[in-house]
Input
Amino acid sequence: MTIKARLTLLFTLLVASILLLFCFSVYYFYDQYREQQFTSYLQERVVTVIQLLEDVDGITTAEIKRIEEANNTILFKEEITVYDEQDSVIYDSGKIKFPVSANELAEVRAGKAVQERRGERQLLMIRHFHESGHWVVVADAVDSIGLSKLNRLRDILVMGWLLSLVLVAVAGWIFARDAIKPVAEINYQVNNISAGNLHDRLSVGREKDELAQLAQTFNLMLDRLELAFKAQKSFVSHASHELRTPLSVMMADVEVTLMKERTPEEYKAGLRSALEEVRNMNQMVNQLLELARTEEGVLHKSYQKVRLDEVLWQAQEFVMQKNTAYAVTVKYDKVPERENEIAVMGDETLLRTALANFMENGCKYSENHKMTVHLNSDAHSVILHFRDEGVGIAAADIPFLFDTFYRSDNTKNRQGYGIGLALTKRIVDIHKGSIRVESELGVGSDFMVQFPQAGVLEI
Ligand code: ADP
Output
């Protein structure tokens, strides 16, 4: 069932029930009022008959009837019977006597007043104190006018209820259609958004209702998706571009080598240059793979307590072995009292890759190829400073350093792809760490990295 149909049904049921309750109350209270009024007429009639019986000595039933008929005060199908102490009839209006048992008469004589509806007749039984004993007056009549008014009212209420049911159903349908309209519009617009028109947005409308909020949330999601989609696209084009350059160099080298007959030495030189390019490509592909691995976000399983000083030593060894011209010094700013002060929860291999990258950059972008790492800690975190006295970074470049394939203009003459820092940032992020860069052109750089201590971060 559609929401529109469900809303209509619910709305109709609700209003119909309220109306039904209202109609019943009107009918019931009107009936009560009619009964009360008619009983009071009956009472008046009883009083008149009793007065005639008491006040006019020796008056006969026929005379009473004549007086009453002359006054025209008799109710419709009225029947009044008066019983004396011995249950014998003193007065009877003469038509069909209302059947009452001796038991009922005794009960009324004992004090019980009967005032009820039996069939179409309204019955009243009361006792009357007379010097000869307790009389019982049984009076009944048909409230024909009252009942016909009641029936008319019932018909009007039923008709009114049925008619309002139809109106309410129609109104409910219109109301539900109106309420659902923005959803249908959102549905239509969302259906029309695909990879080809990711820049399209849902129209939010002027009202600030929940559906407008939903459309806004959806638009925000589209913003993020579009950004990710663009990043993905530019990543792929950058990656292919970066791979194409060494491939072209290699192809040119090989073609030049093969142009004419060469000495074994010349062939060796050609192969060595090709090998160099293949190594570079391999390094780049490896970095890309690692970046993809960090994006998968399933690394938490391999998290364990890692001492950062040990990782620093390993990274230092790795960097200095790879490039013997590089010199990395690791210093404790404060000797840790407890192992936990310098331990973090994380993936050791990834952390080593990240720290080694800071070290490599520090050496690569310094004339002296030297850099120093300072290890420190405070109450909750482990703090590392990677300092060099190298070329430095322009303030305008700092915000983009961690973008994939970004390279500063002043370092383009050195080998690199601009993937290292993007990968490093990602690794620091997934370890809930942070990076701050301070640098001055021609003076040097300081990359400050902060990780939460193992005891602080429960992953
Ligand atoms: P790559 O070093 O391969 O170019 P990275 O992602 O590691 O890639 O670094 C991105 C850019 O950041 C570098 O090209 C360089 O311009 C700049 N950079 C990083 N570290 C330093 C540093 N210590 N000193 C100066 N520039 C740096």
Remarks:
- Residues 357, 361-362, 365, 388, 390-393, 401, 406-408, 411, 416-422, 445 surround adenosine-5'-diphosphate (CB under 6 Å).
- The chain has a mean pLDDT of 88.
